[in-house]
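Researcher: Go.
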Amino acid sequence: MGLFGNQFANVVEWEEFRDDMIFWKWNNREIKKGSKLVIRAGQDAVFLNNGKVEGIFKDEGSFQIDSDIIPFLSTLKGFKFGFNSGMRVEVLFVNTKEFTVRWGTQNPVLIPTPQLPGGMPIRANGTFTFKVSDYMALIDKIAGVRQDYLVEDVKIRITAVLDQLLMKWISREGKDMFNLQANASDIAKGIREDLDMQLMDIGIAINGFQVMSFNYPQEIQDMITKTASHEMIGNLQKYQQVSMTDGISSGKVQGGGAAADMAGMMMGMNIAGEMLKNMNQQNQNQQAEADKSSDTAAVPSSAGGSKKPNFCPNCGAKNEGANFCPNCGQKLG
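Model: Structure:
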């Protein structure tokens, strides 16, 4: 057959590298004498023999397998290359970086809530991060039977259980079902811990889980927006006034110029009346504060000598001896 030469040597390296690839296996070939191992930045090389880990190499660079690698293998360190045969092993290349993945619910998650008997249909989206944490578990559960493993494979595992975890943690932490964003951090923390426990079995750690937003059905979102508007404005009457203003400015109040003018006049009268009422109330409060310690004895009326109160018992306005309150018309005495 002739003497063994370097023409049989090969380079052991990650030949099909992709950014979304978690691991790739070099196998089904003999490593000949004079072969090299190439490890690039962000990669680890795991030597396997019959499914058993022989050695893990983390330093990047180019290494002579017979002199730099074999002496550090567990059971193969005494292996001697023959003339026509080499060492048949597998080399698992592992991507050591942290992966970031976007997620989103494919269908609405029905969250039980007393307000809606059928449940609140909610969608959510966000990101999660993960990396390989346990080579032994990864080899035992995944790499032993697969040539490669992709980020998409992990995403499929996570989305398969994500709806149940969202339902669990929204029900537990979502104290206000109409303001879930306020509890997003606690919900995400609980989901991350559960996912980490589930993927630990295959040697993957979930380092982070974030919920970017919760999305309600359009009719629910409209109700939330309207309720928020009421709270912000203060009461329904003012909300109606603002709605009328918006309608006029946008042209939604139609029916000719007269209709718009009449609506504007009515709105102006309502606003003016509201302002006058507030001013009167403010003056009454100031006068009541100033006269708090004054004498409250009644004065004789001009009609029959009966006692009249100095202040109206209904609205608090000061009385100058009249039979009826000049502010609200309440009968006095």
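Model: The CA atoms of residues 188 and 248 lie 45 Å apart.
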